[in-house]
């Protein structure tokens, strides 16, 4: 890893205080590009960078790597490692609505859970808690018992190390309480595997996939969608989700508009003209 890249990693770790996973993603992307180029990134010109990325067909992957490169070169310019600015335009992606589950679909999945074992109680509580909180999976897995304050969850390690408070529905809290009481282990973390160690992201994915055939992130979308359809203000949803910018939350306005249209079509006498 070049000196400039090491300085960038230190900057996003100490000064920007980005999450551990974000730092690892930046480091992995940029270090891999340096190894492929066989020289420091800071010594590459724009054409060389584009040539390195030319074989990437997945536009989401390409944009992630371009974002990493742009952040690195912006840091180098502001730190006077480079004399000129360098910024690559991201690939345009088709706008798609986030996948989400309805309340009925969620409960159909929960009926498949065997709650006669503590592992079953864990799976049931985990699914309900994701749906009731809208947490990122990393935030859920970082939960400690003392993060719950009455019916509020204190998210201490959100994206960008931002903290927030989320009210949790009593049904999810009751499911969590049953799981914790049945736990055969003592641990500061809430979500544990069968060995009594903190649950991994892969295991959490397997749980939601097993009962709902979706990833944990779909439950985050389901939480936001339920709030929007219920009439929640977009800025409130932004705060609950921990989005740094309202632009990130704007995608749910499409769901809001669709819901409004369906309501008019089913209730208004002139609906057939729409």
Which spans have pLDDT < 50 for at least 5 consecutive residues? none
What fold name goes in the CATH topology slot of the largest domain?
Answer: hpI Integrase, Chain A
Counting structural domains, the number is 2
**Termini Cα gap:** 59 Å
Strand proportion, as a percent range, falls in under 5%
**Side-by-side strand order of the widest sheet:** 1-2-3
Mean pLDDT: 87
Short description:
This protein has 274 residues and is mainly α. Helices cover 56% and strands 4% of the residues.
Characterize the structure shown.
The chain has helices at residues 3-15, 20-37, 46-53, 59-78, 103-110, 118-133, 137-141, 170-182, 201-212, 216-229, 234-241, 246-249, 253-267; strands at residues 148-149, 152-155, 164-167. The N and C termini lie far apart (59 Å). It folds into 2 domains: 3-78, DNA polymerase, domain 1; 103-263, hpI Integrase, Chain A (Orthogonal Bundle). It has 274 residues and is mostly helical. The protein has a 3-stranded antiparallel beta sheet with strand order 1-2-3, with no helix packed on it. Helix 1 (3-15) packs antiparallel against helix 2, helix 2 (20-37) crosses helix 4 and helix 6 runs antiparallel to helix 8 (170-182).
